[in-house]
Design goal:
This protein has 275 residues and is an alpha+beta fold. The protein has 6 helices and 8 strands, in the order E-H-E-E-H-H-E-E-H-E-E-H-H-E. It has an 8-stranded antiparallel barrel with strand order 1-3-2-8-5-7-6-4. Strand 2 and strand 3 form a beta hairpin. The model is unreliable at 1-30 (pLDDT under 50).
Length: 275
């Protein structure tokens, strides 16, 4: 993976905007942030009957009978390891319109499961089959969605999902108006009309182990397109801000809001297992 330039960190929203998460929403919109639960699961490496097609069919059955019918779940999706520190990883994501919907959805899941498999023995057998694919060890995080979004228009095929996790700094001279203006300009000139980026979803920490965490998810057709995106960003920057000195000064202002520490991972979005 190529090294990325410092400006790439800056396409996320500063915690200075914590009290105003709808700042970039369209005029007239009053909908607040959604909440995303991210569960990092691990494959059961000792499962002798492991079969990917069977796993997909089991999760598709649960999706159709439970998740798709759960009115408290706004969206859901699965992601498989491509480039990350642990090849056993797979990520389960759910999105909710409100914080309270997280608990309501869990209760509704159980109600729908009992409706889908009214016979207790059959229900237990299904969950035993489903759970056999996973190790007991998992982690959970909750993020709030941010409104600078490029929505994915076509989720009918597997896609590459590049995830960049950055960490926020808290400069004493930080200004909300400054970061908001820079953010809006960056999104408009580097992401919104970039044909390689099929979807873009930034999030900030809401509940979990690291309160400085910011996460961006970029959806692309292939790893080749991910490399092309990195290669082309320098040209986009020069085109957007042609004066070199002014450009350097701009990113100096921008980067003060971030520590410079980041992590990169690539996953495969599993088409057909999404709501």
């Amino acid at each position: 993976m190529k090294k990325t330039k410092p400006f790439f960190v800056a396409i996320v929203l500063s915690l200075l905007l914590l009290s105003s998460t709808t700042i970039f929403a369209q005029e007239g919109e009053d909908k607040g942030p959604q909440y995303m639960t991210l569960t990092t699961l691990h494959w059961n490496m000792d499962y002798e009957d492991f079969d990917m097609d069977t796993w997909k069919s089991v999760e598709k059955e649960y999706l159709d009978k439970v998740t798709a019918k759960n009115e408290h779940v706004a969206a859901s999706s699965f992601y498989l390891h491509q480039l990350s520190p642990d090849n056993r990883e797979l990520i389960s994501v759910r999105v909710y319109d409100t914080w309270n919907d997280i608990e309501k959805a869990a209760e509704r899941d159980w109600e729908l499961a009992k409706e889908a498999w009214p016979d207790e023995a059959e229900r237990d057998a299904f969950f035993k089959k489903q759970n056999a694919y996973y190790d007991r060890n998992h982690t959970d995080e909750i993020y709030t969605t941010l409104p600078i979004v490029k929505h994915l228009k076509d989720a009918s095929k597997d896609l590459i999902c590049y995830v960049r996790t950055s960490h926020l700094a808290f400069p004493e001279d930080g200004k909300g108006d400054e970061i908001r203006a820079l953010m809006g300009e960056n999104f408009d000139k580097l992401i919104k009309d970039n044909p390689l980026v099929k979807g873009y979803y930034p999030h900030r920490h809401a509940w979990g182990k690291d309160g400085t965490e910011m996460m961006e998810a970029y959806f692309l057709d292939s790893l080749t397109d991910l490399d092309k995106m990195f290669d082309g960003l320098g040209d986009l920057m020069e085109e957007a801000w042609p004066d070199e000195d002014a450009r350097k000064e701009r990113w100096k202002k921008f980067n003060k809001y971030f520590t410079g520490v980041h992590g990169d991972a690539v996953y495969k979005f599993v088409a057909g297992l999404n709501k």
